[in-house]
Sequence to fold (1003 residues):
Amino acid sequence: MAPSGKHERDKPWIMRTYAGHSTAAASNELYRTNLAQGQTGLSVAFDLPTQTGYDPDDPLARGEVGKVGVPISHLGDMRALFEGIPLDQMNTSMTINATAAWLLSLYIAVAEDQNADRAALRGTTQNDIIKEYLSRGTHIFPPAASMRLTTDLITYTVTEVPKWNPINICSYHLQEAGATPTQELAYALVTAIGVLDAVKATGRIPESEFGNVVGRMSFFVNAGIRFVEELCKMRAFVELWDRVARERYGVTDPKQRRFRYGVQVNSLGLTEQQPENNIIRIVLEMLAVTLSKDARARAVQLPAWNEALGLPRPWDQQWSLRAQQILALETDLLEYADLFKGSKVVHAQTQHLVESAWAEVQEVLGRGGAVEAVETGYIKQKLVESNAARLRAIESGEQVVVGVNAYTEGAPSPLIENLDEAILTVDPDIEKKEIEALEQWRADRDASAVANAIAELKRVARSDENIMPASIAAAHAGVTTGEWANTLRAVWGEYRAPTGVAGATVKASRSGAAAEVVDRLRKRLGELEVRMGRRPKLLVGKPGLDGHSNGAEQIAIKARDVGFDVVYEGIRVSPEQIVASALEEGVHLIGLSILSGSHLALVPEIVERLREAGLSDIPVVVGGIIPEADTERLRREGVAAVYTPKDFELDHIMSDLIDLVDRQHAAE
Amino acid sequence: MPPSDPANDADRVRRADKAAVSRALNLVEDKRADAQDRVAALLASLKSAPKAIGGHRVGLTGPPGVGKSTLTSAVARAVRARGRTMGVVAVDPSSIVSGGSLLGDRARMSFDPSDAGLFVRSLATAGEVGGLAYAANSAVRVLAAAYDVVLIETTGVGQSEIDIVHVADTVVLVIQPGSGDVLQFLKAGIMEIPDVLVVNKADQEELARRAVADLRGALHTAQAVGVSGREDGDWETPILATSATEGTGIEELIDAVDAHRKHLEPTLKARRHRGEVQWMLDLFMRKHGEHGVSTLHGLTEIKARAERELDDGETPLSLCERLSREYVAKLCQTS
Ligand code: B12
Ligand SMILES: Nc1nc2c(ncn2[C@@H]2O[C@H](COP(=O)(O)OP(=O)(O)OP(=O)(O)O)[C@@H](O)[C@H]2O)c(=O)[nH]1
Ligand SMILES: [Mg+2]
Fold:
């Protein structure tokens, strides 16, 4: 190394774009374009039915098919997805969890059809179920069964597909659900420990080879806008993981103790207001995970400037990809050794994070570990509380967000002159076409082979054998995603995760302007209760497969804190259930939260069912990612108000909700 | 939802028409003075409903997070599978600061929304001491007129579930493997012995086995120091292990609860009557406090009157109204 600290240019990190939508064929085209653009790996986004194990014709899949990702229902879809892309030369990352074992089985089956060597397959299955219960919401089975699937996949790939990263411990999603840097570190580590302990407990991996398993663990982390602290967080991760690997698992090879991670930078902080500012946030956040050579990301994917508006178009993703390319290839970043080694400031902040995170790791382990802390709702409640604190700080102006609570006036942005075209829209006919294609697939396959494969799957699920071989055989036989998942549902049951809201407390100042506003709202509700005889009761509903719970949780907590009685049932509730709950609970108001883009299918259905149940006098409001054009449509359907991310002042929303109940009462 | 018309609705409640049941529950929650007569009228007309008399009111209580709601969900499915209908009242605490509440029990229950034979209502305690909501007593009576089994879920251990003894025919206490407080309460005689004891989360096997053993011991001690003191003294409190998530032990739990109901047959009327008396006393105390009690010649006298007068026609609400009027009349005389 030269005295200046310069050295030979490092190889750039892998640049990915999280993509997939509509159909396997359409996504295949997108991937091929992206690869031609210089992208160096694939990152597959699956639609919600695929992620939660439903076929497109399942009633629960309504409005979701091909929306936020690609639908993969069977081997034929997987084949089409990678048409013309040789799997033994690809590095494919799949954001898939509850159904990870199945999607990997389909992938392996396609590779086998392509005559590719299993051992040559490279890529990642996310396969981290803990953070699904805590944040992402695509879990299916109870924790014990889920952990079994997780360990089956890991122990299978370690010997059969050795270059595969069988699991990607995700703290990314925890930050997106509100985690502070300390919490992100701690909960990622306890998740990894929970998984490794479970793998160990299978007894399938000889002691001497356990280092290999530890070495195959990889992480997927977040980087927020406080990028100096985030940079220190990455360094803390490196140090803590080394400690865990060494002390808890006795790994002696330093290579196997390396903290290997990919990143998606923060999306939660990306704003609907002045959305062009987001590209600047994205670039700054990218610095946190690239500047330290000693703690640099292996792979980076960036959200797009229009994140809070809707799905990104190819151009929007390309703009973010260019940001990565410029940093890696134009600047001199990759020519230097670690920039921060020896920095007292960085060291001190890193140590601070190491210590606070380690204390929280001990806390969770003391509570029985990650799975226990999921089941009791301990971690979930912590996240909900952190997120509430964040939102309060933005609402009060304590945390500055340019364009949101500061410098809100400005010249109009040419980027959003035509808002409805500033996002990707998915053809609503896709669902019908996918259902037809699926029916064709079912008709064309060998029914008895399918029945046998399913019977075998069921047998294995009841035993303690590895689920992978039976799943790969089922993939070849033409079994569908829904059939695979339903077979396992029948054996293991389903699980609804704790919502974390009931016990969540939010520190609020007892004096000052904010406290006065809250007091006024409470007084109004109190008066309303006296007039109505009953305390106003609000049902917060999350219909469909959408797992975005932040908004619903925060509305629920805030509503309780201003004095509503609130019924919140968690995510993935069917329209029918929401109406049944409204009826049985005798609510005065219904608030629906939908971020996955299925509002046009689900809201009218709920409104119609309410009418049928004689409940059309209950006002309905909707919140979430609702494009402007759709707002009008929803209002025409009878929705009283629509809220989107720009409505960040919860006090205003609460005031509106009280008005609505008041007006409805006056009308009766 | 339009306000309820008690006479018409009482009939529809008996037929378990969900909209009517829901309206009736809204009415009994109504705290306005002018609603009280209608509530009393509604409850009076539901009192003689065949299900109200022949049905079963089950209290499910235990510390936070032991799995009461999950268990309720599992029990509901099994009860429905046995062809019986079920109403659930799930009680959660209100925030002392805001008066609001987050009613989270429903989130843990998964039912078929089109099932006409199952009804779940969440209630907030709204600042009531004793863990039961203001309207819970009345709500149970509404549901009891409509469904074969009524289950009341409340959180608490120790003092706070005393209330539930007065509304439920059978009290089921759920505890968690590895939790010591219930044992302490039982041993120290702080807690009345429940009719059925359940160790949930039995999927955590080792812990659960130990908990069952510990409970047996504690129960023994408690009985030895004579905590029980009930008229159904010959009832042996069964101790069961369940896993609400895996669905094991649920049938046994229902059998045990049914057995207790059968065991109660000769004394049920007396037990419910005592519950009504207690409820009436609570209502009157809440309304008029010590002064009201002493004006009407003390607690013993009021209790004796309640025991006499709470017959088939009179409900605690209407008797309380009557006593209130007497109290007010006396106040006017003396001033
Ligand atoms: C955080 C986030 C996540 C987190 C969610 C964590 C959680 N538990 O909630 C994680 C990382 C898990 C996630 C995952 C996914 N996400 Co996401 N996510 C976001 C993000 C960045 C922020 C949403 C958020 O939480 N905001 C903070 C809360 C407080 O705000 P809010 O929900 O908007 O609520 C406010 C208002 O809308 C309103 N409101 C909302 N609900 C209600 C209800 C009532 C009653 C009322 C009165 C008001 C109200 O009031 C709130 C206060 O201001 C958005 C983009 C963005 N910046 O908005 C994408 C976004 C919603 N996600 C998206 C996608 C595609 C996904 C995935 C499906 C990707 C995939 N293919 O796998 C997954 C799967 C999730 C699933 N199971 O459904 C898309 C949806 C696209 C669309 N609608 O067409 C978005 C828009 C990003 C994008 N541009 O592509 N995501
Ligand atoms: N392992 C295991 N977990 C269970 C069982 N029953 C419930 N749980 C879990 O325990 C947690 C709490 O369950 P709830 O049903 O909400 O408990 P509760 O007693 O109703 O809680 P509160 O109403 O808040 O007092 C949830 O995460 C459940 O999934 C069980 O039998 N086994
Ligand atoms: Mg509960």
Q: What stands out?
A: Chain B has two domains: 50-264, 271-334. The CA atoms of residues 292 and 327 of chain B lie 7 Å apart. Strands of chain B lie at 56-62, 86-92, 101-103, 118-124, 149-155, 170-175, 196-199, 239-241.
